[in-house]
UniProtKB/TrEMBL annotation:
GO cellular component, one term: spliceosomal complex
Subunit structure: Associated with the spliceosome.
Role description: Required for pre-mRNA splicing as component of the spliceosome. Participates in the second catalytic step of pre-mRNA splicing, when the free hydroxyl group of exon I attacks the 3'-splice site to generate spliced mRNA and the excised lariat intron. Required for holding exon 1 properly in the spliceosome and for correct AG identification when more than one possible AG exists in 3'-splicing site region. May be involved in the activation of proximal AG. Probably also involved in alternative splicing regulation.
Record protein name field: Pre-mRNA-splicing factor SLU7
Skewed-composition ranges (Basic and acidic residues): 21-42, 494-515
Acidic residues: bias regions: 216-229
Pfam families: Slu7
Domain of life, per lineage: Eukaryota
Source organism: Cyanistes caeruleus (Eurasian blue tit)
Nucleus as UniProt keyword: yes
Length: 523
């Protein structure tokens, strides 16, 4: 009875909105039609399924994602609403225009006590236990005098990722207008003073001074780029426009010279590309219009300039008063004399070493290109192996004779290798100065190898049989040392004819009592 009551109570508890009945099983025909419709939707021949919000469902989405579980709502159609962010679970953030209010809010101070205010000072923004004012002998609740103003409570702002990192959030653009007005007043005052000075010059009759002031006025006008036209658009010959760091529009940007992502790195912040963008294209750096920023550092007089500067620093450390910018002529003459003395010293040092130890014949040896047949010439090949640019490197010859066939052999020595031995491929002979035997030699070599393998196999079988016989004799010796009552019963484990190797091992290990040397075998 109790179980029946429980079973009757369960459906009543779950009949609010959702029924826990399982969906009816589909027939074979309905299942086939459903699968065909899914295939047509995936191919694009049938319109996509629409969810309860009127949005199309991608037919390639798996069923376990788009379908609603039957125990939640079996009558619900397939939808992706449960896969989207739920509005009730999303955090609410303040907009980018919200910010903390600055300054104290100015409003009229209350003249009488208000209900719910602090009993000590009379402010509405806190209670008596949170009051920071000195406790009065008689609070404002009872006196109604000296009511304190309400504090300004800042709002609790909650920003998203972008709002927290917005550097201009809370900035008031009207503050910048004060700076603009200040500069405009200064500019107006300058123009007023200039006009007064011009009137005085005209009254005195100094025309040259007027022209000079007019030119200086043009110089001041150049400083303000907002008051002039764009470069190239102003045709007034009286104005002088100087605009720096302008790039010619016909120039190719550095990052567009080689679109390969693995080429030279371009730093967008400093607009620098130190390496050569045409490094892996095979172009000569002297032939391209731009070879990287580092190319300038190692071309022209840059290297000699750096060497001269280094010499100036070293000479200054040793007591010579020279400077690259202050005394360039003196430094150049001193550097030239230093190089001449340095070369003479090296030549004298070399001659003294050769005179003392000898070895001049090694210095007169031919170059390495002739000795090792190696050069540093640039050679470029195509994908098919043909030479495109440069001269192909010659094949290095060995000091040994190559392709020499002796004793009627058709192959060279070393063309055949087997089991760690070199030989001739034509006859499989491993003797270097032997005569070629042709196919007959191959057959003999095969038969010899087979006989060698057979002998090795027989030796292996004999060794196994001897080990087994020794183990059997040792087992018998151990059993004979036991008491008769403790010896185990003999049982025949296998009934087979012994092999030739086992019989040979038995004959070799069998003891003969009539042998006069039998007593010495165990010693």
């Amino acid at each position: 009875m109790a179980s029946g009551a429980v079973s009757n109570a369960l459906p009543a508890a779950g009949t609010n909105d959702v029924s826990l009945e399982e969906p009816k099983k589909m027939t074979r025909e309905d299942w086939r039609k459903k699968k065909e419709l899914e295939e047509q939707r995936k191919l694009g021949n049938a319109p996509a399924e629409v969810d309860e919000e009127g949005k199309d469902i991608n037919p390639h989405i798996p069923q376990y994602i788009s379908s609603v579980p039957w125990y939640i709502d079996p009558s619900k159609r397939p939808t992706l609403k449960h896969q989207r962010p739920q509005p009730e679970k999303q955090k609410q953030y303040n907009s980018s225009g919200d910010w903390y209010k600055r300054g104290v809010q100015e409003h009229a101070v209350a003249t009488r006590y208000r209900k719910g205010a602090c009993e000590n000072c009379g402010a509405l923004t806190h209670k008596k236990k949170d009051c920071m004012e000195r406790p009065r002998k008689v609070g404002a609740k009872y006196t109604g005098m000296n009511i304190a103003p309400d504090e300004h409570v800042q709002p609790q702002l909650m920003f998203d990722y972008d709002g927290k990192r917005d550097r201009w959030n809370g900035y008031n653009p009207e503050e910048h207008m004060k700076i603009v007005e200040e500069y405009s007043k200064v500019d107006l005052a300058k123009r007023t003073l200039k006009a007064q000075k011009l009137q005085e010059e005209l009254a005195s009759g100094k025309l040259e001074q007027v022209e000079r002031d007019h030119n200086s006025e043009d110089e001041d006008e150049d400083k303000y780029a907002d008051d002039i036209d764009m470069p190239g658009q102003n045709f007034d010959s009286k104005r002088r426009i100087t605009v720096r760091n302008l790039r010619i529009r016909e120039d190719i940007a550095k990052y567009l010279r080689n679109l390969d992502p693995n080429s030279a790195y371009y730093d967008p912040k400093t607009r620098a590309m130190r390496e050569n963008p045409y490094a892996n294209t095979g172009k000569n750096p002297d032939e391209v219009g731009y070879a990287g920023d580092n190319f300038v550092r190692y071309t022209g007089d840059t290297i000699s300039m750096a060497q001269t500067q280094l010499f100036a620093w070293e000479a200054y450390d040793k007591g010579s008063e020279v400077h690259l910018q202050a005394d360039p002529t003196k430094l150049e003459l001193l550097y030239k004399s230093f190089k001449v003395k340095k070369e003479d010293f090296k030549a004298q040092q070399k001659e003294s070493i050769l005179e003392k130890y000898g070895g001049q014949e090694h210095l007169d040896a031919p170059p390495a290109e002739l000795l090792l047949a190696q050069t540093e010439d640039y050679v470029e090949y195509s994908r098919h192996g043909t030479v495109i640019k440069g001269q192909e490197k010659a094949i290095a010859c060995s000091k040994y004779e190559e392709d020499v066939k002796i004793n009627n052999h058709t192959c060279i020595w070393g063309s055949y290798w087997k089991e760690g031995k070199w030989g001739y491929k034509c006859c499989h002979s491993f003797v270097k100065y032997s005569y070629c035997t042709g196919e007959a030699g191959k057959e003999i070599a095969v038969s010899i190898l087979l006989s060698i393998h057979v002998e090795r196999a027989k030796k292996h079988l004999y060794s196994l049989a001897l080990n087994a016989e020794e183990a059997r004799l040792l087992h018998i010796k151990e059993i004979m040392q036991l008491d008769e009552r403790k010896r185990p019963y003999n049982s025949q484990y296998e009934a087979r004819e012994p092999t030739e190797e086992e019989m040979e091992a038995y004959r070799m290990k069998r003891q003969r009592p009539d042998d006069p040397m039998a007593s010495f075998l165990g010693q």
